[in-house]
Amino acid sequence: MNKFSRFCLWNAILLILIASPLISEGRNEFDVLHYEIFIDLYEGLMQRNGYYNGYVKIKLVLNKSSNEINIHSASGVIQIDSVFLSENKLGYQQNYENLKIIFPSLISQGETLIVAIYFQRRSDLERGFYFYRSDEVSPNLPSDIAYTMSEPSDARYWLPCYDEPWDKAKVDLIIKVRSSYLVASNGLLIRDEINGNERIFHWRSKHPMSTYLIAFAVSEYITFSDWYHKVSNPSDSIEVKYYVWREDSLKAVSAFKNVVDMMKFFSLKFGEYPFEKYGMVAVYPFRYGGMEHQTMTTIHRKWLDGNSEGGIAHELAHQWWGDLVTCETWAEIWLNEGFASYGDALYTEYKYGFEAFKSKLEYWAKAYFWEDSIIRYPIYNPPSGRLFGTAVYYKGAWVLHMLRNLIGDSAFFAVLQEWGRRYAYGTGTTQKFIQVVNDITGEDLSWFFNQWVYEAGYPVLDFSVSFANYDTLFINLRQTQRNAIIFRFPIEFKIQAKNLDTILTFWTYSADTVYIITLNRLSALGDIKVQIDPNGKILKKVLSFPSKEVNLPLPFDFSLHQNYPNPFNSSTTISFEIAGGSKVYLCELKIFDVLGREIRKAFSSELGSGKYNIHFVADEISSGVYFYELRVSDGSKLVYRGFKKMVLIK
């Protein structure tokens, strides 16, 4: 659900701040199999107040024996008239958002029941259900409009139901309206019956859905359709149906021109489009950009202006990631929003090229960094009020982007297709997704998700570049982030010179790492430019500039010699020479392990020209391979840097 469209950003933030999503660690005592929902909006449209009567028949199976069940129904908004089990009238208690239904006797585990609840909504509260009169909205609407919007937990504000994302059920939705109105809803239309001034629409879903995905929209719409021919069977097609106001029809044709192309692209990448139909309905006013109601996305009317293709792609991608596979609890919301956001980015890459794709990811990174500067949180189980924050959307998309670059395109898209196949029409968790990744790659990539999903923050990088001996390039990479872990990731460096243009990949595991690159005839290459992460594969912030240019040092006679003995047992001698002349230089000799971590500063002093021997004692250092580095500076710049390897055997 794209809540961060430009035109509705502040309204979205307002709703985010007041939202209080329920996150449950348990599961219910029953499973809902089917909802039959009837909403009589005829009088509400005639009276122009949006009030309605209705019923919901809930078919469910008990997971344990009980003499009561508890579902959701917001008191003060939903008035319960009566509850029945077959012909038996049942007792009930309604309190806040809960409805307890009491059976006359104990019902056995495994028994299937149909509970009928008759209710009415006589409230103007704009939550779950929205009604607007055309003459009271500025600018005036072409007609009155009523629609539902339930994510995360507002379905209970327009009908009694079990309102948790892990409980999916098939749905029949029957809506009575005035004869001039159309109803857009989930599934296939199996009845459109006009009787005088009344009209009944009956929509039926083929596949189960969570309650927050059940929806309808009612207004004096016109419709038009495209057809998507399945990539798995081009002779089989499904209707793509659009509901808009007549005044918007030409704009809508242009705004929706690439929807079928998107469906084809996503079907090739994610697996065949998973439902019986697709469509979009435009509404206004609307606090959001779009909402991925199963098979019938609700969008803001302003998306028809033609500048919201990314949002349209995002909502369509949700049909796979959010609808086909739904987050099991709201703690897992990144599995919906991060995945749909990356779907939008993937379509951008396919349609408009790599640079447009890269620019979109960079923009998202900046938006995420801004929010992170205000409040930092992991994308798993975000805090109250941040369920739909930029970290969930944009960092979530970046996590998938980094995973793709880590395991390669072939494995990445195999993971997505297996994710959709394994948990089709069900729910998923981060741990389940990690298992799919591990199964496809044959590796344990838990570490990747631990740092990017379960931990907060991102790496902040600083790097420097220098030369030694005219044939060795040193890249010093430092992670400088605060209040965040040290990240492990591969990082690319692009190295360019007169006769050189290459990209090298290195791993970083520590806060401070030195990479040593030996190049043939470096002195003939001229000045060298080094760029970090040139293709934007890592979510990070780079201090100063992402590229550095370095000049070859003047040919002073500095040198660092191999230590002796080598290998050594407990002590060794390290020799070096300082160039002739009258200058005095600051000389520092440091010891590093194979991961580039500084182990010890062996020597630091100001020296003039001459030859020097440093006796190094390796006490309290374990056996292994080490490197020693000599840095010589004249107070304003580095004039020499030497680097050699030694082996300690105890």
Automatic annotation (TrEMBL):
Residues 255-452 form the Peptidase M1 membrane alanine aminopeptidase domain. It comes from the Bacteria. It catalyses: Release of an N-terminal amino acid, Xaa-|-Yaa- from a peptide, amide or arylamide. Xaa is preferably Ala, but may be most amino acids including Pro (slow action). When a terminal hydrophobic residue is followed by a prolyl residue, the two may be released as an intact Xaa-Pro dipeptide. Gene3D superfamilies: Neutral Protease Domain 2, tricorn interacting facor f3 domain. One of its GO terms (cellular component) is cytoplasm. Its cofactor is Zn(2+). InterPro entries: Aminopeptidase_N-like_N, Aminopeptidase_N-like_N_sf, Peptidase_M1, Peptidase_M1_aminopeptidases, Peptidase_M1_dom, Peptidase_M4/M1_CTD_sf, Secre_tail. The keyword Ligase does not apply. It is an enzyme of class 3 (hydrolase). GO terms for biological process: peptide catabolic process; proteolysis. CDD domains: M1_APN_like. Residues 34-213 form the Aminopeptidase N-like N-terminal domain. Keywords: Aminopeptidase, Hydrolase, Metal-binding, Metalloprotease, Protease, Zinc. Its EC number is 3.4.11.2. Pfam families: Peptidase_M1, Peptidase_M1_N. GO terms for molecular function: alanyl aminopeptidase activity; metalloaminopeptidase activity; peptide binding; zinc ion binding. Belongs to the peptidase M1 family. This is Aminopeptidase N. It comes from Candidatus Kryptonium thompsonii.
